[in-house]
Amino acid sequence: MSLPLFHMIDGAPDPVAPFSHAVEADGWVFITGQMPFSGTSNTSDYPQGIEPQTRQVMENLARVLSGCGLTFENVVSARVFLLHFDQDYEKMNAIYATYFRAGRRPARTCVGVSGLARGALVEIDLIAKRVSKPPLAGEA
Predict the structure, then answer these.
(1) What is the pLDDT of residues 98-118, one digit of tens each?
(2) What is d(CA 140, CA 36) in angstroms, rounded to the nearest whole number?
(3) What are phi and psi of 136, to 5 degrees?
(4) Which is more confident, 59 or 45?
(5) Is the Cα dihedral 30, 77, 104, 133 positive or negative?
(6) What residues have CB less than 8 Å from 137, skipping those under 6 apart?
(7) Rounded CA separation 62/57 (Å)
């Protein structure tokens, strides 16, 4: 096992606590839950409502993935945390689903929670897998 790589991504929102945007070990990339910050400051405003907050969270995740040289195609698992589960589940799903191709969606857990940082309605974290380059013809 190689030592983990700790990624801090330029252009991604500043962390709200002491953590890295992502940590990578042996091709697995664990992406910290993103909040719906509309800017890079962790005091920037959140959009109003679950749909715009979900979209902003997914865009923030896309920034972190991109900073690691990955896309949503590399995502194998997601965890979604909703402040108002019954009220927001279907609306969040409608936005979330647009970021993944049908038939290529990651495994997922979605839970209702009693609170999220800075009063967010949604937080999502990801696990991605870096694709190994297939061997070239003649290589073992």
Answers:
(1) 999 999 999 999 999 999 999
(2) 45
(3) -75, 160
(4) 59
(5) positive
(6) none
(7) 9
DSSP 5-70: EEE--TTSPPPSSS--SEEEETTEEEEEEEP--SSSSTTSPPPSSHHHHHHHHHHHHHHHHHHTT-
Strands of the 22-25 sheet, one edge to the other: 5-7, 22-25, 28-34, 122-129, 75-82, 107-112
Q: Which domains, ranges and CATH numbers included, belong to the chain?
A: 5-129 (3.30.1330.40)
Long-range contacts of 130-133 (CB under 8 A, 24+ apart): 130/24, 130/27, 130/28, 130/29, 130/69, 130/70, 130/74, 131/74, 132/27
Decide: 95 and 82 in contact? Cβ < 8 Å: no
Render pLDDT for 13-51 as a digit per residue (tens, 0 to 9).
Answer: 999 899 999 999 999 999 999 999 998 888 888 999 999
- State the Cα–Cα distance between residues 38 and 33, nearest whole angstrom: 15
Count of positions (residues) in the chain: 140
